[in-house]
């Protein structure tokens, strides 16, 4: 979603906060249309909080009804509506659990970098109303990544907003 400035012949890259806000809105819209979408997570530079000019999105979609090979699973999701180019992985909850337990390079990367977006129905009852820790958003078997205060990930997106429920 690089935007051409009206006063310059340059493209302006969106801020990480702007990208995260638009990805969260996209995820909420997708969950409203597809109830089997349980979670959407960011990994890579946006998951680590190191995104900058030229960064793409790395998304993990947990879809309880996902079936078939990855290239067919991806066709279901309008990734072109996202603000940046996107590499996405669509897994069932069981596949995610197996991947995280595998010890593979991808599993290690997800355990280190994965940050879940808040989704309707994705939080445990004891986590509702708490917005101070990403731990409230993880809730995934096998997750061993760092717990980062949400305020460090995206203050504009999480500041003073109650969680759904």
Describe the structure.
This protein is of the alpha+beta class and 165 residues long. It has one domain: Beta Polymerase, domain 2, CATH 3.30.460. It contains eight helices and six strands, in the order ββαβαβαβααβααα. The strands form two sheets. The chain has a four-stranded mixed β-sheet, sandwiched between helices. The protein is globular, with a radius of gyration of 16 Å.
Short characterization:
The chain is an alpha+beta fold and 165 residues long. 35% of the residues lie in helices and 16% in strands. Strand 4, helix 3 and strand 5 form a beta-alpha-beta unit.
Percentage of residues in DSSP E strands? 15-25%
Regarding quaternary structure, how should these chains be classified? single chain
The number of helical segments is 8
- Gross morphology is globular
Largest sheet: 4 strands, mixed
**Rg over C-alpha atoms, rounded to the nearest angstrom:** 16 Å
Query: What share of residues is helical?
Result: 25-40%
Q: Strands of the biggest beta sheet: in what spatial order?
A: 5-4-3-6
